[in-house]
Amino acid sequence: MVGGGPNGLAAAVALARAGVQVTVLEAADEVGGGARSGEAIVPGLLHDNCSAIHPMAVGSSFLASLDLSRYGLSWRLPEIDCVHPLDGGQAGVLHRSVDETAAGLGADGARWRALFKWPSARFDQLAEDIMRPLVGIPRHPLAMARFGAPTVLPASVFARLFRTERARALWGGVAAHAFRPLHLPMTSAIGVGIVTAGHRYGWPVAAGGSGTITSALAALLVDLGGKIETGVRVTGPAELPPADVTMFDLAPGAVADILGSRLPARAARAYRRYRHGPGAFKVDFAVSGGVPWTNPEARRAGTVHLGGPFEEIAATERDVCAGRMPERPFVLVGQQYLADPGRSVGDVHPVWSYAHVPNGYTGDATEAIIAQFERFAPGFRERVVGMAVRSVTEMAVYNPNYVGGDILTGANDIRKLVFGPRVSLSPYEVGVPGMYICSAATPPGPGAHGMCGANAAELALRHLR
Predict the structure, then answer these.
(1) Which Pfam families match (predicted)?
(2) Domains of the chain
(3) Under 8 Å between Cβ of 331 and 85
(4) Is the dihedral of CA 260, 445, 450, 352 positive or negative?
(5) Which of 313, 421, 436, 444 has CB 3.0 to 4.6 Å from 252, enough for a Cys bridge?
(6) pLDDT band at 29 (very low <50, low <70, confident <90, very high)
(7) Do residues 129 and 144 touch, judged by C-beta distance below 8 A?
(8) 31 in Cβ contact with 41 (< 8 Å)
(9) With 90 as the cut, is the pLDDT of residue 135 above it?
(10) Buried residues in 398-418 as b, exposed as e (16+ CB within 10 A)
(11) What pTM was computed for the model?
(12) Which of 378, 370, 377 is nearest to 353 (CA)?
């Protein structure tokens, strides 16, 4: 296994559990990829390095099958999942309960309930299909047809189903997780999936930081007889040890670089031309007394989206995808300490944030991020006692899969959503017998759910048999 992120570790565990001898080669000094945590500003103040909120991970059938609580993994839920504040103090509020969310959306409550109550109640059944490649025959075709119909819509068209600014903005903030212009087809897919999973499981955090997800996977792998070697960077085919199966938890371009001429020409072209999405500019804050949000419900929310009304979100997403840095970028804020108080030090709390910026952006978005905080929480700047910045360039150094700062490992266009890194009925195969790609570039995409790795491992086991 080349790469020890959540998907690489998940694939390694799946193989080791089936009796395969597994070695993970990780270039960094520790495994974990995007799911790592650490102290960045104040001693004892715990920050997530990237992946932070996990509605898809807590609902992952693969992770659930492992009983990772034996290795220290537990989930914590905030009082409110997500708040999208608006100028003037109002906000769209997302609760785990569909009915409670609908009750807060006024005239749009009935529409929200009609859209999300049915799929949320059936999420576990739907996940058997949506957490696998979309090509092929679904296990639950009728349910998938009903669930999938609205996901093909552009998020901007989906937004027209709502009449209130609160509901439209709440929807837009979740849909913006796709890092795509919201007027394009299928940009509703990511938002519908996240909302549905959240209404089933909430938007939890991992107690003790996201790093506990991958540390639990690593501990289980070792117990199953697997080996983990850190500080080992593979750059060419000669550095791959002999193996019956080789798997890559890497961006497609890195796989092409390693395999070189061993990769079939068609796969090599697809991997080298693979499109990456916008970047993430991350700023962690140490905040005395917490963020002074104007909206009181935002003070109880694990996640806060800073983007204003839907039209503003749509404009900023168009800009960043076109390579233009907006004056008011869309900013995601994590207040994980509200669900997991052990991350704080006294009255100083860790506040996690990143802004959507153009891929490869070389500027400094720190002040733009702080301005968005000040817009919805006047006086925020005075409460900041320290901060740690990870620019787009530094993001790609932290995790080489984040090409140009793209933390999703690929642009969420129709081709990627349907096929993965190349047009193929088997998105995990690279075209060389016994070799597979299992990173977030493959279905079902980003997240610490491990399903990309589990799906690829299933294919690898069939090859071994």
Answers:
(1) NAD_binding_8
(2) 6-275+399-464 (3.50.50.60)
(3) no
(4) positive
(5) 421
(6) very high
(7) yes
(8) no
(9) no
(10) bbbbbbbbbbbbbbbbebbbe
(11) 0.95
(12) 370
